[in-house]
Amino acid sequence: MEHPFITPAPNNFKIASGTWGHKKFKLKNKFGHLNDDDLFFAEGHEAELIGRLCAKLNMSEADLHKLITSI
Questions:
Q1: Using CA atoms, how far apart are residues 43 and 46, in angstroms rounded to an integer?
Q2: Domain coordinates of the chain in residue numbers?
């Protein structure tokens, strides 16, 4: 049963290939403990990136999706 106040992360979340460099830079500045391995992204492998960042930042998938789409 889903919690009524938690929005699940979208299953179809995609990162446009041309935008990741900018987003990566902003995330590194915001979270100084992230390194290049944490932020490595291969097109079509969003789930791997999201999993790494959720663990490293202690965020839910939904919160991380919001963060990435807002920058």
A1: 7
A2: 18-70
